[in-house]
What does this fold into?
Amino acid sequence: MIDGGCSLLYMNLTERLYCKMNNIDEVATIRLGSPFRERIVHEPTGKFLVVQGKDVGADGNLILEGMVRVADVPGKGAPDTLGAGELVFQTRGLSYRAAIVPQDAPPMVAAGSLFILRPDAARVTADYLVFFLNLPATQAVLRQLATGSTIPNLRRSAIEQLALPLPSLSDQHKLVALSRLVRQQADIETRLNALRMQELHLLAAARAGTESGSAGNSSPAKPIRAKSSDDAISQR
It folds into this structure.
């Protein structure tokens, strides 16, 4: 996930770059996924992987593990398989994440609840478009555009008219690279905090063990008996 700090940094940088604003439909084509009208049943030997909302990772990557397979895809003609570099985009719920189809992906199709975006490579990179769509600021705008009370969903027109700051291709690569560095830094800080907490727990456990051991080994002091006159005589 792209954190808030990266979102703020992105907005500051795009302002400095004097980016031109374009609607999404000016730099990418959008189509719907395949309309599975019945429950999608997993077929272990199926040829096609089916991308559903749960398979869109927060980091902009598809989660291939556990993805459903099918032998046939509904609809007339050849299945609408996803191409490398295309985006799949969630349209329902409270999160509208996007992910890129990897270069070495097996044959896969998107479920009907997803949009498929094909960027115009001459104007926008797939990585930059995913980066922009997954920003917290963009997610907040998308939640405002969603309709429906039970399960909010995004209309195609809402995505098409979404404003996209469009720096040069060179600057797009730089922004994406910077976002990855910010994410890596956040991951490192998270791991460091976890290690610090683990160290504190170990120190606390060792301290408690030392104190309990000291208490168990101590013996009660013997009472001092006053000397009698008989004791005094026996010592002479």
In short: The two ends are 90 Å apart (CA to CA). Helices lie at 4-16, 24-27, 126-133, 136-145, 156-160, 169-217, 229-234. The longest helix spans residues 169-217. The CA atoms of residues 1 and 59 lie 5 Å apart.
